[in-house]
Amino acid sequence: MNQINETIDLDSNFILKSRTDETIEDIRNIPNGYKIRHKNCNIVFDKIIGEGSYGKVYLVYADNKKLALKLTNDGDECRLIQTYLTPYEIGLFYSKNNNSNPPFIKYLGSGSLFYNEKFYHYYLMPYYVQSLSEFLKHSKDSIENIFFTIALRIMNALGYLCSKNITHGDIKPSYILLKIENNLDSCVLSDYGTSKFQPSFKNEKSVGTYMFMSLDAHL
């Protein structure tokens, strides 16, 4: 059953109606063709294009324009964002409030929906057609040329995050996305938001993806 839902925009201090009594469970797949109403446009779900600690990312169509939608039913994430990131920090990644245009994914809006007796929050983001890891599988260019092409943009993104006291912590090809297929000049940095901390990490010498860590992490 399709549904029209109340929506919340990031420029309204990012206040979401989080439920404290909901249990954390795997998000059920939203079927292809499912529709919701976001502000003055219809959003139609297509397919899952990614998964993470807090939810799933869908390819959606907003009035026939491709977007990415991150869906989460974890109420704790909303409380973490409001408590630790604050509306100011959220504003750093909201496209209307960010005039410096650093090359990373920006939020376009947010909202909530109720599906299959479950309450969800969602975030809208631009859709990127390709990850760097996918590009590398088919590229015949040298790694050196690829690195020097993307290095400046990624370092600009990291420099902006660091200037705002935000650390990425897990740079790897799957988190570098291309807006234009096979065009490295269109690359942006992703996956810099809220992450889960496991108590067991306290006993680990390093946390992240070893293949893409600096040499000192392997000593």
From TrEMBL:
Which Pfam families does this one have?
Pkinase
Query: Does this entry carry the keyword Signal?
Result: no
Protein kinase domain span: 43-219
Provide the alphabetized UniProt keywords.
Answer: ATP-binding, Nucleotide-binding
Q: Where does ATP bind?
A: K70
Mind listing the GO molecular function terms for this protein? ATP binding; protein kinase activity
Q: Which InterPro entries match?
A: Kinase-like_dom_sf, Prot_kinase_dom, Protein_kinase_ATP_BS
Task: Tell whether Metal-binding is among the UniProt keywords.
Answer: no
Question: PANTHER family from the entry?
Answer: OVARIAN-SPECIFIC SERINE/THREONINE-PROTEIN KINASE LOK-RELATED, SERINE_THREONINE-PROTEIN KINASE CHK2
Instruction: Please identify the protein, giving its name as recorded.
Output: Protein kinase domain-containing protein
What is the organism field in this record?
Answer: Strongyloides papillosus
